[in-house]
Amino acid sequence: MPNWLAIILFLLVVLGAATGVISGAVWSAGFLPAMPGWLIILLKIGIIVFGFVMLVASLMTLVGDRKQSAKIQNRIGPNRATFFGQSLGGLPHFIADGIKMLFKEDIVPNGAHRTFHMVAPALIFIPALLGFSVIPFMDEYCSTGAPMVTPNYPFELCPNGEWLNYFQVIDLNSGMLFAFAIASIEVYGATIAGWAANNKYSLLGGMRSAAQMISYEVSLGLSLAGLLLIWGTLDLNEMVRLQGKLFAGWIPLWGIVIQPVAFFLFFLVGMAETKRPPFDQPEGESEIVAGYFTEYSSMKFAVIQLAEYVATVFLATLTAVFFLGGWQVPFLFADGFHFGGIGAQPDIALPYAVVIAMRIVAMLFKVLVVVWLQFMMRWTYPSFRYDQVMTMGWKIVLPLSLANFFVTAFIVLII
Amino acid sequence: MGEVNVKTLKQKDRTFWEQTYVTEFIKGLGVTMKHFFTNLSPNKEDRDTRTVEYPDEPRDYPDRYRGRHRLMVRDDGQVRCVACMCCSTICPADCIHIEAAEHDDPSIEKYPETFVIDQLRCIACGMCVEACPCDAIRMDSGVHVSAFEDREESFHDRETLMDLGGQSMAEQGGDHIPSPN
Amino acid sequence: MPKVTINNEEIEVDDGTTVMEAAAQLGYDIPHFCYHPALSIPANCRMCLVEVEDNPDLQPSCHMPVNDGMEVHTESERVVKARKSVLEFILVNHPVDCPICDQAGECKLQDYYMAYDAQESRLRTEKVDGVKVYPLGPEVVYDGERCILCTRCVRFCEEITETDELTTAQRGDHTEIRTFPGQELDNNYSMCTVDICPVGALTARDFRFKCRVWLMNTTDSVCTGCSQGCNIHLDHFRNEVQRYRPRYNPDVNDYWMCDPGRYTYKEVHQDRLEDPMVGDNVVNWHAATQAYVSTMDEALDTFEPSERAMVLSPQVSCEGLHQARRFADEVLETDRLYMGGKPGGESDDLLMNADKNPNRRGIEYVFGGLEAVDSFESLVDAMEAGEIRVLHMMNKHIPTTDDALRARFVDAVADLDLFVLQAMHRGEMVFPPDHRGDFPAADLDDPTLVELADIALPSSSHAEQDGTFVNEDGIAQPFSQSFKPLYNSQPDWQIFGRLGDEMGHSLSYRRLADLREEMFGDAEDDAKPKTLDDKQSKSRAPADAATQPTPAE
């Protein structure tokens, strides 16, 4: 019998392992600076992509789409495939799915543009992964291991050392622009996939996906314009650091606190961007078979599916970074907990390594919570009609985000 | 033309918050969340899971479940059926094949030499049971018809059907029911 | 001519008419068990009691002749109550084992119970045990518990067959039907007792437990057992003939038919030639026809018309014979025609004829007399003299019991250049050992004929086609198709049409009715066979009181 506690334990172990690797790397900081820069970047890419993004995205196919929906619908979910008589919460199904996908026949329809048909899944998948390169999973690392917290947070000092970028693949000061630019490239993959398959349903799906993603792209950026006005930076790590400020000593100034409307808009638009229910019109199962990936099979199909999950994780990560404080733990600063304002000494002093581990775990936890919330919504709401999707995008969400922007601008002007 | 009574039901107007969908969305999310967390409970009794893991947890059939046919037997273990063909006549799927023969015992006189039910054709309507004047065929065995690997296996012959058979309470043959007085 | 009022309807009937017959003429079916129109009237079942005004007692209507001015009520309250009481008495010792009983479905007791009694038994006493499964004879089994002692069977043996085998034995509720000591019910008409038994007391050994009567479909047909042409109900179930029952025809067979005739239904299913054969190879009709065309074309070129011959079968319907005549004329261009069919057999004064072929008179009418048709012996002589090289034979019966002649014929067939056999059966027919009666020629069929045939074509039995037989009295009697031709067989008239068309002669008919119009067309009107169209059609119609003064037996 599947045991939910066991699954949660399993996930915690996975997360722990990931954080363990990272904090282990931190402990061995002695030799990290000695490594060449490209090796460090490769290491970061490997850990982030394979240790986190792919793991979460692929496990979502099992945990999110099957087990979570089963719980919502008073079912049990897949438990028939077993390892040595143990169903292991359906994990063997997940592995069997992967093996099945690998060994299925790869079909290219007659009259398809073979090159584009082959390239399209990669065009969908690569941008989805690229976006993670600017995501900060922790603050910059102080090479001496003892940063100094000043009452004027977020200004921190690293005495006798320098700030090293160990928890972000690239530290772009225009990170947010990069993330959105990359995310909007994804639309090419979907459109090309739909066009290259020589199938009318696919083409319709491709057109729908292009129209939907471009429409919501506008609101996606505009809903964040208010935050930009307040924070005045495009650097994602800086944004997260700014969210560590406390209002009146007790209230962390997360994005959701200072821009609640923007949070809802962003969350909504984000779901529309990922093309998952209730915004799955590009797939439109009841109307156009499977939309732009109707003609895909085998691993190509798997890659497209996986790209959707990766996009979900990416949107969740962005939500966490912009609105939920990213790696911030409330009241936790580089030397420990400070309650009711930053004092000279922390109320609970913690070693720097522990703080780093807690912050990374907090970041991952927030991402997972948002992903979970997205799946809850996916299993709660019925799909929209396509015209409703477009109506909502242009006539409701866009005016609302504009209004939010102007009101914020007005308030910022006054203050 | 007769008078048609029309009762106009006024649809409830949506309130402002319903119109924005925001509260309704949250309510809906609340419903699914309730189910989700209920079923996440470590205590299995508290969960609301309706799935029956059928082969692992066999489910009791209701009393009137029409399962595999069975042919009842007489006191001495012979088949109770007298091959009157009522069941094969009434059978809408035409799945009962009976060949009658003369019994050595003149008081029994007629018995089914072959009695085959094609379970693939059977639609489990139970009309054979209702048609039987001798309480000889029943579907109350409580056993469902298992899957077949071979078409031949679907032909349940007399011996197979009698394997599940029991004895009936009803009197049979010419023996008169004694007077209650 | 007395006038009688029955249920307030007045009718004038002949002198001596009974109340039941008069009522039947008005359409009132008075329930009865012991009364049978062909038998004497014992009035012992008391089921037909009716109320006659000015008469204090109810009167048996089967026995009571009408008087002028009589007023009768057949459905009054008293009568219905009396029927219910009578039924209750009859059912005192009846076992009510309808599930086992073969009569269920055509049982008068069952029908009347449903109509008049329909109550649970009020009796709490033990029923009297009667004898079960008592063989009265080789064909008939008796059940003493079901018997209601109407004595129809006893009277049948006394009055129709006049063999006097049966009587009633014992007294009171132990009375049973028995044969006289040392006798058994073994005459040629014993199974008629089963037909007239109103309940399931008498059952036929052959039909016993074979099929429930409600499952069977019935077609009006004609018995092929002999030239009498008894009218029959052909009862069939799932493309299989289950039994023959006599069909009332006062001009031919009255209510009866003989036991050997009943058994001829087995010929429909036994040992059939299933597929066309060319040599030893089973082929389809297309291939068989092509083979026939090529070989026969060659034979027609090679041999003179006088070297070709055809054997006609009096087992085949007039339609088939008509086509055979045209085929011989137009395709074979021969006038060498010979008579086939079964050899003669047993006969008696009642219904059985010595000629065991149902349609010999049909040949006479179709060919305008039997002068054109030579005897079988002359065929064998001609074949042995080498005068005949090509032979088309209908049905493989050899009309002789003389073994020497049969052997001569078979030897002569082996020497033929082309031998085409168009037959229903394949080889020797084997009847089950318990069968009774003589089947002339059936067991004399020679299986080697099919093997010797260059081309063998399967033809259908009378159950599988519409057709006409002309019986010994020259009465043309149509019979109907019961089911589609079995196996790959085809009716003879269609075989000839198919072969003729392929040979380049327009022989086939689109409709059987067209063929029937021409069938006896060459003959003068007075030379045509008599038809019983009126009676035939009426006997098929629902029981009509005016022409059928008696309720169905």
Tell me what the structure shows:
The complex is a heterotrimer of chains A (about 425), B (about 180) and C (about 550). Chain A is mostly helical. Chain A has one domain. In chain A, about 60% of the residues lie in helices and about 5% in strands. Chain A is built from 13 helices and nine strands. In chain A, helix 3 (about 90-105) packs across helix 11. Chain A is globular, with a radius of gyration of 22 Å. Chain B has about 180 residues and is α+β, with helices and mostly antiparallel strands. In chain B, about 20% of the residues lie in helices and about 10% in strands. Chain B has helices spanning about 15-20, 20-40, 85-90, 125-130, 160-165; strands spanning about 70, 95-100, 110-120, 135-140, 155. The radius of gyration of chain B is 28 Å and the shape is elongated. Chain C is α/β, with parallel strands linked by helices. Chain C is built from 16 helices and 24 strands. Chain C has helices at about 20-25, 75-90, 110-115, 150-160, 190-195, 260-265, 265-270, 285-300, 320-330, 360-365, 375-385, 405-415, 450, 490-500, 510-520, 535-540, and strands spanning about 5, 10, 50, 60, 70-75, 135, 140, 165-170, 175-180, 200-205, 215-220, 230-235, 240-245, 275-280, 280, 310, 335-340, 375, 390-395, 420-425, 455-460, 465-470, 475-480, 530. Chain C has an eight-stranded mixed beta sheet with strand order 15-14-21-20-19-16-17-18. Chain C has a five-stranded mixed beta sheet with strand order 2-1-5-3-4, with helices on both faces. In chain C, a hairpin with a 4-residue loop joins strand 12 and strand 13 (about 240-245). In chain C, helix 9 (about 320-330) packs parallel to helix 14. The longest helix of chain C has 18 residues, at about 285-300. Chains in contact: A-B, B-C. At the B-C interface, strand 2 of B face loops of C.
Roughly how much helix do the residues of chain B carry, as a percent range? Answer: 10-25%
Structural class of chain A: mainly alpha
Strand content of chain B is 5-15%
So what's the oligomer here? heterotrimer
How many extended strands of chain A?
9
Indicate how many domains the architecture of chain A comprises: 1
Strand order of the largest sheet of chain B: 2-3-5
Overall morphology of chain A? globular
Order of helices and strands of chain B: HHEHEEHEEH
Overall geometry of chain B:
elongated
Unreliable stretches of chain A: none
Order of helices and strands of chain A: HHHHEEEEHHHEEHHHHEEEHH
For the secondary structure, the number of strands of chain B is 5
Derived from helix and strand composition plus strand pairing, the structural class of chain B reads alpha+beta
